[in-house]
Amino acid sequence: MVFIQGYCEANSSISHTWVDEGISPCFYFTLVPTILLTISFFLGTIHCIFYQKYGTAMEPKFIPRSCLYGFQLAISVLLLIQFLGGMVWRAANGGELPGYVVLYGCFSALGWAWAIAVLRVERRRSLLMDRTRGHSIALLLFWAVAFSAENLAFISWYSPHWWWGLENNQQQVQFALWLMRYIGTGLLFFIGLKAPGLPRKPYMLLINEDERDVENSGQVIRPSLLGRTEDNQSTWQGFRKKVRMLLPYMWPRGNIFLQLLVLFCLILLGVERVINVFVPIYYKNIVNELTDGSSWNALATTVCIYVLLKLMQGGGAGASGFISNLRSFLWIRVQQFTNRVVQVRLFSHLHSLSLRWHLGRKTGDVLRSIDRGTSSINSLLSYIVFSIIPTIVDIVISIIYFITYFNAWFGLIVFVCMGLYLTLTIIITEWRTKYRRDMNQQDNNAKSRAVDSLLNFETVKYYNAESYEVSRFEDAILKYQVSEWKTQASLAFLNQTQNLIIGSGLLAGSLLCAYFVTEGKFQIGDFVLFGTYIIQLYTPLNWFGTYYRLSSWISLLFYRKEILRDVSFTALPGQTIALVGPSGSGKSTIIRLLFRFYDVHGGCISIDGQDISKVKQTSLRAHIGVVPQDTVLFNNTIRDNIRYGRISASDQEVEEAALAADIHDKIMTFPEGYDTQVGERGLKLSGGEKQRVAIARTILKAPQIILLDEATSALDTQTERNIQASLAKVCVNRTTVVVAHRLSTIIGADQILVISDGRIAERGRHEELLVKGGLYSDMWMRQQQAQDSDSSSDTETKDRTSEKLQPPSTSSGHHGH
């Protein structure tokens, strides 16, 4: 038979929080389940109401199959059974059951049952207007508090009222139950950061992607059309991947000197933590010695030690002390290494992106993102290593110190305040992230608009659109400032919330400490110690919200459209293949596929029987030369622009390539010759001159395969004939693929492919295609007629000009003016 005796055990009271070198079990097992039940019931209820009212049941096919989710559910159920089982076991073995044991078992079971319900609701329902952000704050906070509560048991390591001694069967069973809770809550929290049972994309995006697959339209739907983008995801989304990405920048591989610097900086960081503990203690000792009337020698020694520690520490947060300044000085070399590696890898990554990305990019947007991203990574790494981690360590040390030196109430105050501070900071920062992202986007838009306008200054001046461009730029700035105001206003709200929590914790602790001073349990110095320590602890936390979302993680999505269908041809060694057809038929796409700017989604492209998708792009492109339709030069000298075809080429080889491209004589007429600067995008040269420079590049590269994308479209007839002769010499014994608009330039091609609507409509030699009387024949006739019309028009123009230039007739009696 079970009897429920008093609420606490004999000779114990819930008001006694610290008993025999540990937390009172009655106090601990009352506080923990109450907090857990409050979190699960209050936040969980709000969460479920929102999901029921604004959410929808997800189709089973969109719910990911996850063993980890099943593991989460199994652990939660096991913990729930453990709470009830522990209560039943104790009742069965002890006969008398304290009231707090019943409360602990029932409240904990209710809290975990409600947490399981929330977990199942999250998996089965989705908020259509919400983005994927992992588990809710309710669940993550519940698991975090549960795991933290089990860690608090370590504080009572030496208390005989707890199970650490394992002296009897009851303590052994309680220890086994605690171990189950400790491992279970820890696993739930860390697995919860990954959120394995939830879709990785917003539910609306999954629905639209599924509809796209059914319709087989070949289009990729941008999430922005749905009002959300993937870069709106939570900071915790992909957290492990982000940390793994940042870690290599913190440890300079291959550089022993920098690695030693990192280790020494970490040692200095540990010294700072020790100093932060002793500064308030010596300040307390000074106050006590002043009030107790201690000798001058003892007081002077204490003051000197305090000043020395304060000199080492600096302004309380370690921002300007001797050790902090020394560490910052030593960290400069490591930071430079990080900055260099980040910029080089980012630049290399941009060049490795596909042509599709570069065609859709905005240069100003990219440059602004590079600057912001590089500085953010540097600041984030420094803040993680020297601010966030040390602050967390300081919090743990302070909780342990206050519990051991004062009593459990002070440790509880610090723990609750820190928990609320970090939790509300994360929640508010997650909420205000959309404003920050919008501000960054508007900033990118403004910079992109300015760069785009400046790059196209010729067009602006052609149409007298200077005032229009200035107006557009001002409009972009105004939109940025609106987003900036929202960002700053939400930041002010965050800071006020943080100040309110800090003030509440300081007030509660100060009142309690002052009460104990009046009761004679504490000295005046203890009051000073508490206030100094708390302020010192809170100061670095003020920046936590600022750096919480410091780095941005960009996800880019692109449209995809099918251009070519059923295109198949073979080019033998040394042959010339010509591609002709109307604009937009897919001719240039074939060139880009050969160069692997794109990869095919069906079939393959082979060179000497080897699939080009199976080889490295650098190896493939080393054997291919391209003369594009639109040539863009670097803002450098003509010599360096031609040498770009083969960086190691000598000046003589550069000039020989220019001779072959029929541009050497023109270059020599420039005052600075080959050292002439071509201007941004080569604007100082004419279209024909730029194209001949591009041809010279390709000639200098001496590739085995040559791709000509309407290479002579910007040249006059005579220059075109000269270039054609030069290209004919260069292309001897080389496989050549030519995209041509003027059919007269590809009469001698070994095979002509007529492309229409992404398909090969006709193929053959020039004479064969004319005989067929198909598309090629029609194109040939139209061009011949246009050429004849132009020739006759030119003749008539010359005749009229010659008539105007004849001397006036003297018989008219007057002179023409």
UniProtKB/TrEMBL annotation:
PROSITE patterns named among the record's database cross-references: ABC_TM1F, ABC_TRANSPORTER_1, ABC_TRANSPORTER_2
SMART domains: AAA
Domain ABC transporter per the UniProt entry, residue ranges: 548-782
Biased composition (Polar residues): 807-817
Region described as Disordered: 782-817
Enzyme class, broadest EC rank: translocase
PANTHER family attached to this UniProt entry: ATP-BINDING CASSETTE SUB-FAMILY B (PTHR24221), ATP-BINDING CASSETTE SUB-FAMILY B MEMBER 6 (PTHR24221:SF654)
Name this polypeptide is given: ATP-binding cassette sub-family B member 6
GN (gene name): abcb6a
